[in-house]
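Exercise 7. Predict the structure of Isochorismate synthase MenF from Oceanobacillus halophilus.
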Amino acid sequence: MIEIKHRQVEELIEKAIQKISKDEEYRLVSITNKIENFDALQFFEGAKHIEKSRTFWTNSDKDFYLVGIGQVYEILAEESRFTGTKKAWRDILSKALIYNPYESPGTGIVALGGMAFDPKKEPSAIWSNYKQSHFTIPEFLLSVNKDDCYFTVNIQVRKDDLPTQLANEIERVERILFAHSELEIQDLTIQFKNEIAPFEWKNTVKKATEEICQGKAEKIVLAREIRLKFNERASITSVLRKLLETQPNSYIFAFEKGNDCFIGATPERLVKREKEHLLSTCLAGTAPRGKTAEEDKQIGKELLHDPKNRKEHDFVVQMIKQAMEDYCTDLEVPNNPVIYPLRNLQHLYTPVTATLKQGYSIFDIIENLHPTPALGGTPTEESLAFIREHEHMDRGWYGAPIGWLDSNQNGEFAVAIRSALVQGEEASLFAGCGVVKDSDPEAEYEETNIKFLPMLSVLGGQ
Ligand SMILES: C=C(O[C@@H]1C=C(C(=O)O)C=C[C@H]1O)C(=O)O
Ligand SMILES: [Mg+2]
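Solution. The predicted structure, encoded as tokens:
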């Protein structure tokens, strides 16, 4: 059993109660302790028994994990989702009592969340549990950073709370979370697979190329959906475990909301912030992996020199460069992309580094970046209008920023691709591709087929 200082918890609650003024409803108290190493997936599984919604996150290097359980606070900024969330986050931090002696990113008060791809799109029923923008501060948070492990408890303390009672309740939940439960391994069987309107989708790709030829846009990213029905309810822990085992160089994430779970393995970083240091990524342009090392290298070489893919990629580079200029100094972007290898495919990749100017938040960067031409297109408004009108689906949180931020100016957001919305015995999978002037509908269709594989293969498909 890990050692949490329960006496300390009680004392801090007591202190908080003394600080609460008459007109204050409650105080948010956050207590972080360094603990012995504990497996992130075990922790996620442990929370299954307490019926609180769970969030799982790991970075693409797999040396940083966050697992959030329950929610002590939620930020739902429906109107102006970036400025609204930024303001709410500032307000929370200004009033919270934070006991965190560690400088480690992702400890203490951390908000985890995401948002819809396009707030102007009429939401469909399948996404009803996923709000336009939703960030939560979990009640319990496990943070693993390389060899170190931390446990944070966030508590809403009210004036009339009894410290001993609250501390005992926290201890009871901790016992459940840190008990070693057997990790479920489930082999799902797909009973029905419904590819949504593939012929219409190819026609839409054709229409997009025509509009591009008429000069109405330069790049438009079009996505499609596959619906699955399984033989039983999908176990999220089992799906996460398979993603962790099979998808290198990818962020593995899961956002549970009630009975639904938005889950995936995305290779695409939107922005990472460590104090003033920023790292963004241009990822666009795709080819399959080769069957032999030699073939693989050859395909990669061709991808690096393929004009159509370079064009797809370059729109992203130009836009990200421009979007970051206002908020950053020391912007550095290499002239040529390199190959970013994944299990099922390879991409063109250009890293972007910069220094964030003082006074700006990670939300300012996200607001300016999203959607990049990796998921929207060029120009942004024209391509979004095309997507809104012609794509026969609601992207929901697919293709949108998801991630976390802490109170010490650290955070990281990815773009939620290679993802699925799992709803009990059913799931919707999403994949898209960048359409440019010389796109061939059939080839783009094949490209999306490979992009479905990371999720399809862990959900019982081939
Ligand atoms: C839209 C997706 O991926 C994007 C499109 C790519 C492309 O068309 O080459 C490559 C990576 C991403 O920028 C997706 O995976 O759904
Ligand atoms: Mg492409």
